[in-house]
Amino acid sequence: MPGAQMNGYVREQNNYFGSVQKIESNDDVKATPIAEAEEIKTTAPNQPAANSQERNEELFHFIHPEIEDGEAWRIHDAVKRVVKHQGIQMICQYLTQLRNEKKVLLPPNPSAAYTELVRMGMPDGEGFNETTFRKYYNKPIAPNAK
User: From residue 113, how far is each of 95, 119, 138, 146 by CA, in Å?
Assistant: First the structure.
């Protein structure tokens, strides 16, 4: 049919099969400008949001000031995970390890640290009271004896 559009698979001279739309009259064809694709900003799945406004929570108070934001949020998440799943002794050992790696600055007052850890999700019930916390807080880690 002259003047009609034909859709379908057409075999061209170089043996290429493709979908082709043929228009015989050029009056119907309108030039459309080619638009640039928008850049999509993505974050890596392992990298959390960089600031506290996006996360809707307050960063762990004792992060060392020289730590970058991404690393600070990783430390925050690790401390949060430890205080939810470990006992007082393991929490204090982990904080001491972070202090030795110069990732956190722990206060000399155990009450301030205890209050912050409770805010982070540590239970404050039986076995997790402040007197037990004071017993293990800022205690040096014993070297492995063989």
Answer: 10, 10, 10, 33
Q: What is the pLDDT of residues 25-38, one digit of tens each?
A: 555 656 666 667 66
The residue segments making up the domain with residue 68 are: 58-136
Q: What is the pTM of this model?
A: 0.58
The CA-CA-CA angle for residues 117, 118, 124, to 5°, reads 130
Q: How many domains does the chain have?
A: 1
In a domain, 85, yes or no: yes
Residue 72 lies in a domain: yes
d(Cα 133, Cα 10) in Å, to the nearest integer? 78
Rounded to 5°, the CA angle 97-94-88 comes to 140
